[in-house]
Amino acid sequence: MNWLKKIIQIWKLKDLRNSILYVMGLLVVFRLAAHIPVPGVDTTALEQFFNTNQLLGVMNILSGGGMENFSIVALGVAPYITASIIFQLLVMIIPRLEELQKEGEAGQRKIQQWTRLLSVPLAALQAYALIVLLSQQSNLQIISNLDSWRLFITIVTMTGGTIFLMWIGELITERHIGNGISLLIFTGIVVQLPQALQQTIFIFDRTQLINIIIFIAIALITIVGVVVVTEGQRNVPVSYAKRVRGMKMYGGVNTHLPLRVNMAGVIPIIFAISIILFPPTVAQFFLNAKSTVLVTIAQNTIGLFQNQIFYGAIYFLLVFGFTYFYTEVVFHPDQIAENLQKQSGFIPGIRPGSHTADYLRRTTTRITLAGALFLGLIAVLPVAMTSFTGVATLAIGGTSLLIVVQVVIETVKQLESQLTMRDYEGL
């Protein structure tokens, strides 16, 4: 019952307990906001539209569950995630931004501020795109009587909702009880699980019993796999040379540098979902175009992404690529090699400096290959099983499961680090 002792220990620490209650309070505020609908929307018709569109269901995941109600936070944190992707790409290709990132906390604060500013126009554009998309569904009459003034007010309201969630996410992150943006997505997924189970039970018949059992088994394997990959690490031995200062001797310690198999965590999955939704979403706007060529291209694009084989292949490649990309962003071998050299540390058999950086880079590339392959396979496995079992309500559950497991692991680790820090401080 070690976990029970941990919970009791956390609850006894007043500041940590208050931080957890504070975060839970913010998540409750988020869920309340997710149930405040934008006026003039037929929620029944909207629910029907979401049930027939799997891609919008995945977008609803990124919105934290606010899109299905067309609430004031319907866009969720998706614009902020898109802005983050854009700036992380720019950091790799623009030397000035790369230098700014290397300046430490001050430079990262500037990039973070620019990311927030970029999120505002992206949120406005996405709000307009979503409104136009729903307005085009004339057979369902989701949005009616939308004049220019109401359109403007709705866009401003939805953009403000995104900024509000960004603020809540940053408040949560400051408490060091998990990543705020990830926890918002996590909360939106968890509150939808009862509805997904209800839909699955509602359509259940005896012929699907074996399929559902197979899917549950695959889900359990997915959970185990994500935990194994997230916890897996390569320990690189590091030795510190002995140094004599005055009458005392320092150093002479053998330790290790942990290199995780999946340093990127849940970010590759979120990035992949954001990118894969873009082409079919844009194509929706051209279904009613006057040009026959545009309509044909839009229909072919939507049909292509509805093909499970193509969808799974693109999803796998994006998760694989973003795992490497984000690892490159967060792991800096040159900086680690420089810090080791300054502290008289070295890897046995490897010369300090550039040779150490090259060794760390090669090692990280090899172990990331295993992590990226495994994470990509786990990502597409639920899609493949849904095609095999025919249980459509569980399709989104696979992607959700990946995010939930990763967020839980990250949050637990942060809580454990807080407990360890307080043990060192004697609290």
From TrEMBL:
Its main location: membrane. GO terms for cellular component: plasma membrane. The keyword Glycosyltransferase does not apply. Gene3D superfamilies: SecY subunit domain. It is found in: Cell membrane; Membrane. Keywords: Cell membrane, Membrane, Protein transport, Translocation, Transmembrane, Transmembrane helix, Transport. It is a multi-pass membrane protein. It comes from the Bacteria. PROSITE patterns: SECY_1. Pfam families: SecY (PF00344). GO terms for biological process: intracellular protein transmembrane transport; protein targeting; protein transport by the Sec complex. Signal peptide: none annotated. The chain crosses the membrane at residues 20-38, 72-94, 114-136, 148-168, 180-197, 209-229, 257-278, 309-327, 367-385, 391-412. The central subunit of the protein translocation channel SecYEG. Consists of two halves formed by TMs 1-5 and 6-10. These two domains form a lateral gate at the front which open onto the bilayer between TMs 2 and 7, and are clamped together by SecE at the back. The channel is closed by both a pore ring composed of hydrophobic SecY resides and a short helix (helix 2A) on the extracellular side of the membrane which forms a plug. The plug probably moves laterally to allow the channel to open. The ring and the pore may move independently. Belongs to the SecY/SEC61-alpha family. Component of the Sec protein translocase complex. Heterotrimer consisting of SecY, SecE and SecG subunits. The heterotrimers can form oligomers, although 1 heterotrimer is thought to be able to translocate proteins. Interacts with the ribosome. Interacts with SecDF, and other proteins may be involved. Interacts with SecA. HAMAP family: SecY. This is Protein translocase subunit SecY. It comes from Candidatus Buchananbacteria bacterium RIFCSPHIGHO2_01_FULL_47_11b. The lineage of its organism: Bacteria, Candidatus Buchananiibacteriota. The gene is secY.
